[in-house]
Amino acid sequence: MNGLWDYPSLASQIGAEKLACLAPSDCQETLLRQYLTHWMEVGNAGALPYIDTRADILSSPFSSRPWARSLLIAAFLPPPLPADFPLRQLPPAEPNRPRTIIASYALQEDYHITGKRLLNTLQELIAGVSATPPQFEACVDTHPVMEKPLAALANLGRIAPNSLLRTPEHGCRSHLALLFTSAILPPWKPPCHFDISCEDCRRCLGICPNHAFTPTDFHVRRCRSWLANEKRGPLSWEEQQLLQGALYSCSICSTSCPSTCSMPTDYAVDALKLFEMPTRKLEQLIAGTALEHSGPILLKRNALAALGWQWSPQQRQEQRHRLASLTHSPALLQTLENWP
To answer: Is residue 63 located within the same domain as residue 94?
Structure first.
C-alpha cells in the first residue's frame, strides 16, 4: 500500500488543502494531556461539557481506539455558498436599526458537510486497496478528538494565540477533518514554513474586543464565538454586552492574521426582523448551513442580545413586553428579563 500514498497528490484529489498521516507513536499523549489540563486550569472547565466528560479519550486518541492503526488529518476550505442561497434571504441590516452579525466563514458550505465528503472519498480509496474491510471513525468536529493539537503534531500548521490552527496558506481559515482507520498507512507530515511567526506578530491578541486571549491563555467564556454558538440557555446582561451584536460566531481574530487569504465579508442582518420571523421560516433559511447547528432559538436569543445592546434604556423598556409576547421559550424570556 505504501506506493499508493502520495499525500500531496491525494490531498488535491479529495479537495483538501493539506493531508497528513499519523501513526500511534506520533501522537504525543503527554503533550495532549498537558494541553487539556492547561485548558481546564485557566478557568474553562464546564464551558464545553464534552471536554470535561471525555478527557481520557481526548488525550489518548489511539489508546481509546485500540483498533486504530493510522490517523489521517485533512485541512480544507469549504466552498462558498451561491449568492442566491436561502441564508441570504435573512432580512438584511438597514441604516439606523439594530443589526446582528453572521461571521464570514458561515457564508461557505457547512464545514461538517465538506469535511464528511472528503473523508467519504478517503474511506472509499482505502477500502479499495485493502485486503480486508478496514474499520473507520470519521471526525469533523463531532467526535471526542483534539483536532487542532493533533493537526499541529501532524505539521499541518501551528496553534495561534487565538487558539485556532494557523496554516501558511490560509492563516486561521482552515477547517479540519480526521479519519481513524484500522488500515496501516505510511506516516507522513508535510513541510510547514511561515514567513511571519506568531511570536513576532500576536495581532489577534490585541484585536479581540473582549480580551479573550493572553499570550499563554484562552478564556473561552469571553469569546464571542463561544457565547453565540456554544453557550446554552439564557444570556446574562454581561454576556449580552460581551456578544456585542454577534448572531453566529465571530471573525475578528481570524481575519486579523496576516497569513489569512481573502474571505467573504461578514453578513449583517436586521436583529428585530430576525427575532420576529416565524421559527419554521428561520429553520428553512438556515438549513444546510453552519447556523443549523445553533438552531432558531439560539439565533433568536442572540438577536435579542443585539437589540438589548444597541437600544437605549427607554427603547428596551418600551419593547420588552411586546417581544416577550412573541415567544414561549424560557431561554428567550429570561434573556429579555436580564435586560437592565
So the answer is: no
pTM of structure: 0.92
Per the CB < 8 A criterion, the answer to whether 106 and 290 are in contact is yes
Query: Which phi and psi (to 5°) does residue 304 adopt?
Result: -60, -45
**74: its cell numbers:** 485533512
Q: Cα–chain-centroid distance for residue 108?
A: 13
Same domain, 102 and 115: no
Q: Which range marks the domain in which residue 47 is found?
A: 2-79+109-199
Residue with cell 411586546: 322
Whether 235 and 306 map to the same domain: the answer is yes
Category of 244 on φ-ψ map: left (φ > 0), alpha (ψ -120 to 50) or beta: left
- How many Cβ atoms from other residues are within 10 Å of residue 243's Cβ? 25
Q: What is the CA radius of gyration of the chain?
A: 21
pLDDT tens string for the chain (340 positions)?
Answer: 444 689 999 999 999 999 999 999 999 999 999 989 898 988 999 888 888 888 889 999 999 999 999 999 999 999 988 888 888 899 999 999 999 999 998 988 999 999 999 999 999 999 998 989 999 999 999 889 999 999 999 999 999 888 999 988 888 889 999 999 999 999 999 998 877 788 888 888 889 999 998 888 889 999 999 999 999 999 999 999 999 999 999 999 988 888 766 677 899 999 999 999 999 999 999 998 999 999 999 999 999 999 999 999 999 999 999 999 999 999 999 999 999 9
d(C-alpha 302, C-alpha 227), whole Å: 9
Q: Are residues 262 and 303 in the same domain?
A: yes
Single residue among 151, 171, 199 that ends a domain in this structure:
199
